[in-house]
Design a protein that fits this description.
With 208 residues, the protein is an alpha/beta fold. 30% of the residues lie in helices and 33% in strands. The strands form three sheets. Strands 1, 4, 5, 6, 7, 8, 9, 10 and 11 form a nine-stranded mixed beta sheet that branches. A two-stranded antiparallel ribbon has the order 2-3. The chain is globular, with a radius of gyration of 17 Å.
């Protein structure tokens, strides 16, 4: 079964309180999403392979270590885009793909409408991002789309997770680890996480 990591870091707790508040405006919300994504990315990459490299410091030659794998960020449109810059700030050479899904408001299930990935995506460790893991439908379909295109190493990053979504991913994709900033216990009748933080996409882009 895949690993579920839920952060208990004081910085993330503090930033989650700000994200949950309805008083937090669009600009601040967008910035905090990026900051939390950076902190999650830091945790999610702890076990990436390293290789030795020769470095000449101003004083002497030495051997350092550097990440020995190619990375890609694939946000699930549209809200996943809000997490991208926070990761790019740490690894600016990372390539970016996109998977477009929308939710059928009657069935609450996702429908894929777009997928554009780096040409060598099958050689990369992919960080799949979406702020909310609610029913798990979008993440499940996005992971299927990546695997169909040959991706073998996938890590899912979200801001907020709920049990239904976690259980769905762990059942259907036991090889994909899940990293979340916080974990709430239920969904409402509309499929939103409770207490949650509202519609992440609308709050990131100021569309409501």
């Amino acid at each position: 079964m895949s690993k579920l990591f839920v952060s208990e870091h004081p910085l993330i707790h503090t930033k989650m309180a700000m994200l949950r508040s309805k008083e937090t405006g669009t600009k601040e919300f967008r910035e905090i999403i990026g900051e939390v994504a950076s902190l999650l990315f830091y945790e999610a990459t702890r076990e990436l392979p390293l290789t030795d490299v020769a470095v000449q410091t101003p004083i002497a030659a030495t051997i350092c270590k550097t990440i020995d794998t190619k990375l890609a960020i694939v946000p699930i449109l549209r809200a996943g885009i809000g997490m991208t810059d926070g990761i790019l700030n740490l690894v600016p050479t990372t390539k970016i793909g996109h998977i477009g899904l929308y939710r059928n408001e009657e069935t609450l299930e996702p429908v894929e409408y777009y997928c554009k990935l780096p040409a060598d995506v099958e050689e990369r460790t992919v960080l799949l991002t979406d702020p909310m893991l609610a029913t798990g439908g979008s993440a499940d379909m996005a992971i299927d789309a990546l695997k169909k295109r040959g991706v073998k190493n996938i890590i899912f990053l979200c801001i907020l997770a709920a049990p239904i979504g976690v259980e769905r991913l762990q059942k259907n994709h036991p090889d994909v680890d899940i990293y979340a900033a916080a974990y709430d216990q239920e969904l409402n009748e509309l499929g939103y996480i409770v207490p949650g933080l509202g519609d992440a996409g609308d709050r990131i882009f100021g569309t409501k």
